[in-house]
From TrEMBL:
<keyword id="KW-0479">Metal-binding</keyword>
<comment type="function">
    <text>Catalyzes the aldol cleavage of 4-hydroxy-4-methyl-2-oxoglutarate (HMG) into 2 molecules of pyruvate. Also contains a secondary oxaloacetate (OAA) decarboxylase activity due to the common pyruvate enolate transition state formed following C-C bond cleavage in the retro-aldol and decarboxylation reactions.</text>
</comment>
<keyword id="KW-0456">Lyase</keyword>
<feature type="binding site">
    <location>
        <position position="94"/>
    </location>
    <ligand>
        <name>substrate</name>
    </ligand>
</feature>
<comment type="subunit">
    <text>Homotrimer.</text>
</comment>
<dbReference type="InterPro" id="IPR010203">
    <property type="entry name" value="RraA"/>
</dbReference>
<keyword id="KW-0460">Magnesium</keyword>
<dbReference type="Pfam" id="PF03737">
    <property type="entry name" value="RraA-like"/>
</dbReference>
<feature type="binding site">
    <location>
        <begin position="72"/>
        <end position="75"/>
    </location>
    <ligand>
        <name>substrate</name>
    </ligand>
</feature>
<dbReference type="GO" id="GO:0046872">
    <property type="term" value="F:metal ion binding"/>
</dbReference>
<dbReference type="GO" id="GO:0051252">
    <property type="term" value="P:regulation of RNA metabolic process"/>
</dbReference>
<dbReference type="InterPro" id="IPR005493">
    <property type="entry name" value="RraA/RraA-like"/>
</dbReference>
<protein>
    <recommendedName>
        <fullName>4-hydroxy-4-methyl-2-oxoglutarate aldolase</fullName>
        <ecNumber>4.1.1.112</ecNumber>
        <ecNumber>4.1.3.17</ecNumber>
    </recommendedName>
</protein>
<dbReference type="GO" id="GO:0047443">
    <property type="term" value="F:4-hydroxy-4-methyl-2-oxoglutarate aldolase activity"/>
</dbReference>
<comment type="similarity">
    <text>Belongs to the class II aldolase/RraA-like family.</text>
</comment>
<dbReference type="GO" id="GO:0008428">
    <property type="term" value="F:ribonuclease inhibitor activity"/>
</dbReference>
<dbReference type="GO" id="GO:0008948">
    <property type="term" value="F:oxaloacetate decarboxylase activity"/>
</dbReference>
Amino acid sequence: MRTADLLDLYPDLPVAEPILRDFGGKRAFFGPIRTLRVLEDNALVRRLLETEGRGQVLVVDGGGSLRTALLGGNLARLAHENGWAGVVVYGAVRDTLELAQYPIGIRALAPCPRRSRKEGQGEVDVPVRFAGVTFHPGHWLYADEDGLVLSPTPL
Ligand SMILES: O=C([O-])CC(=O)C(=O)O
């Protein structure tokens, strides 16, 4: 269902502030949320995307840093191959031409050509907050051209 229709039905659903740009090959996507909190280190992003996605959406709180890219073409291909519905990054991505070729949702603040560290620092499946909303692991995310909506249950 379109996010606008969801909001007509459920006007109180949390809507993220429109600060994220669309980089993926699929503009509308949805799924249950997994989360990560990292800072300029994307080893955990790879570790999660290496697992079966089963239609989930990985939400990465990168602290809003635009100094390094947390996702690029290789990780986007991995996400697609492993069945993730999308990746939402509060931070930067790179290889943007390649990202647009994979039929998954990808949202991020901006592009940045510099790679991230690979140390594996960060937290997995903790509630993360950005764009004025809190993303809880296990809650559902619905995204399309109009916005990004959250729900504690599938709609
Ligand atoms: O490996 C990285 O740090 C990110 C990247 O460029 C890719 O996913 O291709």
